[in-house]
Specification:
There is one protein chain. 32% of the residues lie in helices and 15% in strands. By secondary structure, it is α/β, with parallel strands linked by helices. The strands form two sheets. A seven-stranded mixed sheet has the order 6-5-4-3-2-7-8. A two-stranded parallel sheet has the order 1-9. Helix 6 packs across helix 8 (268-285).
Length: 298
């Protein structure tokens, strides 16, 4: 006989409210444009995208075959360890999306927006681009090992470790200005753009920073860190709402305080409210019944 469990959704109009998507998007895009105009380094881009994962490729079901059940933990993982690869060879970000047929990790390499794709005059890829593409090849080799796939599944999607692992690989590199007539260093920028668009190999996806855009569907997605068998919450967006999607994170993260402290546009009252609801959903997670019902958020 199955047991049904119902979770209480907080619908009180008096609860501290999350920032609206419209307000968040406007503020974030203003920061994003200012950052790109400052000729930032890779580290600055990493830090920004850690706080705003809705801008990352793969935040929605738009890479490869997709993962229609959404990402593990409703979050992106920053610099996730892959056993056997050194700390400088791991992805900068990784989504672990799932569907009924497979686990579909999306490994993302970001490089500096300052870097150019092609050498001026010769039309050949720069050494920096070749090195970045080689990083994707390293990940392909790693995932080609059945042993590594099993370790990966048990670490990053433990409830689905019986499913095959089918990864996709993303490179974010450079700016669109290299391929615009008014700003390009190349004598035929349209041709160079076409060459860029034909470069991705099997399961590879290339973007410039100008092609990234916030996805509303990812407004609730957090950023997690995994190190030495321990998970921590790195950050949440100010649009973050509570609900049953917290249960998976709550099972492995007891204290979200550090991640909440990094949220821009979030009041102290809202942080305290999320902390309280985190504890509630964490308790639900550890008392899972065969059937669970919850409708709505908070």
């Amino acid at each position: 006989m199955h047991t049904f469990h119902h979770a209480d959704i907080d619908t009180s109009p008096d609860r501290p409210q999350a920032t609206t998507w419209e307000e968040y998007r406007s503020s974030m895009l203003s920061q994003w444009r200012s950052l790109l105009d400052s000729s930032p380094c890779e580290r600055e881009m990493q830090e920004f995208l850690e706080l705003h994962p809705c801008c990352l490729p793969g935040a929605t079901d738009n890479i490869g075959p997709g993962g229609h059940h959404g990402p593990s933990f409703s979050a992106v993982i920053r610099q996730p360890p892959l056993k056997g690869l050194g700390p400088t060879r791991v992805p900068d970000f990784m989504w672990v999306r799932r569907d009924t047929g497979a686990i579909r990790p999306i490994c993302i390499e970001i490089e500096s927006p300052r870097k150019t794709w092609f050498n001026k005059g010769s039309r050949t890829p720069t050494a920096e681009l070749t090195q970045a593409i080689d990083q994707l090849t390293e990940w392909k080799v790693w995932f080609s090992s059945p042993e590594n796939q099993l370790i990966f599944a048990k670490t990053y999607a433990p409830r689905y470790s019986h499913r095959p692992v089918e990864p996709q690989f993303v490179l974010v590199y450079g700016r669109d200005s290299e391929f615009r007539a008014a700003t390009s260093p190349h004598d035929n920028p349209d041709y160079m753009r076409q060459k860029r668009d034909h470069m991705p190999r099997d399961r590879e996806h290339y973007y410039t920073y100008d092609q990234l855009a916030p996805e509303r569907e990812a407004a609730d997605y957090a950023t997690l860190t995994y190190q030495v068998d321990a998970w921590s919450l790195h950050s949440v967006p100010p649009t973050f709402s509570t609900g049953c999607h917290i249960m998976d994170m709550g099972e492995v993260i007891s204290d979200p305080s550090e991640g909440l402290s990094r949220a821009d546009l979030m009041s102290p009252e809202r942080r305290a409210y999320i902390f309280e609801r985190w504890e509630y959903w964490r308790k639900i997670a550890f008392s899972r019944h065969d059937y669970f019902t919850a409708v709505g958020r908070e």
